[in-house]
Amino acid sequence: MKIDFDGVQAFVMIAELGGFSKAAQQLHITQTALTRRIQKLEAYLDLKLLDRTTRRVELTAVGREFLPQARNIVHDMTTAVERLKDMSQRAKGNFTLACIPSMTSHVLPEVIRSYADQHPDNRIRLLDGASHEVHAAVLGGQAELGIGVQGEKHPDLSETVLFADPLVFICRSSHPLQGRRSVSWNDMRDADLIGISSFMATRIFMDYQLAKRGIRLHGNYEVQHHATAMNLVAAGVGSAILPASYFQEGDRPDMRKIPLTQPTVKRKVVLLKLRRGGLSPAAQAFEAVLRELSAKLVF
């Protein structure tokens, strides 16, 4: 059933202003156009809502009964449209973001802080998980945007590279390699490494890049999350290979971040969204902030 909103709005305006002339002026249309709207509405309802004479306009009994509901229809529609216009113009609203946990240590908090300064009333629901879970969340519609590691492309996903994130060596200041300005992957053969699970995108990417160069590493320990590896390094259990964005000098006492070279291996952090459809205004605003800040990142 198609609701004739123009006709309902015209009926309410005539009833409240007491005549066609004032109602037409308020709606910025001619009296002829206003008359057509009422005629169309009455024909659709097969009921007469107004009694019009040369001197005045009066509501019929049916019109008086319909007026309160008609006012509600016009009010609800006007309020909804204004709210949507406000969302569009001011990027108001809420959205869900899926993100790999390694981004939540430094990069994502900075982006969210900047976004919150610009849009203080907006809310973000964050789904943190492995890169394949981020892809699945965006594909399944659970998240509008995703931040993950570049991997196998999906035809339904738009993928934009945000920055290149080199892998680095993390150790305590007492480690034999701590004084080096850089270390090579060959130096890692005898290192007491804490490995990240082979299911994590960073580990998959690292193993692939090293396998092409005939390098294979064997860690003494394996954990699921970067944070666990960091905690073990801090406790003196071993050392780790982690993305540079995850750790900044000064984050933890007595810990060092050393560039890994020969070769330098960089994972690409990407922004994911569905190719079909568009983003909500709130998500669009977040994407703009994310792109601006990520362009300035240097590791």
TrEMBL record:
It holds the Pfam family LysR_substrate. GO terms for molecular function: DNA binding; DNA-binding transcription factor activity. InterPro entries: HTH-type_LysR_regulators, LysR_HTH_N, LysR_subst-bd, WH-like_DNA-bd_sf, WH_DNA-bd_sf. The keyword Membrane does not apply. Residues 3-60 form the HTH lysR-type domain. Coiled coil: none annotated. The keyword Transcription applies. Keywords: DNA-binding, Transcription, Transcription regulation. One of its GO terms (cellular component) is cytosol. It comes from the Bacteria. CDD domains: PBP2_LTTR_like_4 (cd08440). Belongs to the LysR transcriptional regulatory family. This is LysR family transcriptional regulator.
